[in-house]
Design brief:
Radius of gyration: 14 Å
Number of domains: 1
Helix content: 10-25%
Largest sheet: 6 strands, mixed
Number of helices: 1
Order of helices and strands: EEEEEEH
Distance between the termini: 29 Å
Length: about 100
């Protein structure tokens, strides 16, 4: 797992970062369905009042990113997007950076 600012290399959603997992791990989703996704890489960003976790995962449907934010109060928010859309996110962030 990569750390952009110091701190723990593990976050509390039970995921392990770093090298690919040896076996699929179930991801529980609504309705009692189970899907499997392997952890490929993780990066943690420690910001002022939040911690961000960026995980690259792979399932039977392909690679995707899971981005989670945890506030100081413990509230957690997560989004996921397909790896093929990464360039669009990078372009959007680069555009936003020019507006700072």
């Amino acid at each position: 797992m990569s750390e952009l600012t110091g701190g723990s290399a593990h976050h509390d959603d039970g995921m392990m970062g770093g090298s690919p997992a040896p076996a699929p791990r179930p991801m529980h989703q609504g309705g009692g369905q189970r899907q499997f996704a392997d952890d490929l890489h993780s990066v943690t960003i420690h910001a002022k009042q939040r911690t961000f976790y960026i995980d690259l995962k792979q399932s039977g449907n392909g690679k995707f990113f899971k981005v989670s934010e945890k506030s100081r109060g413990g509230q957690k928010t997560t989004i996921m997007f397909d790896a093929e859309d990464l360039d669009q996110f990078i372009a959007a962030f680069a555009e936003m950076k020019t507006k700072l």
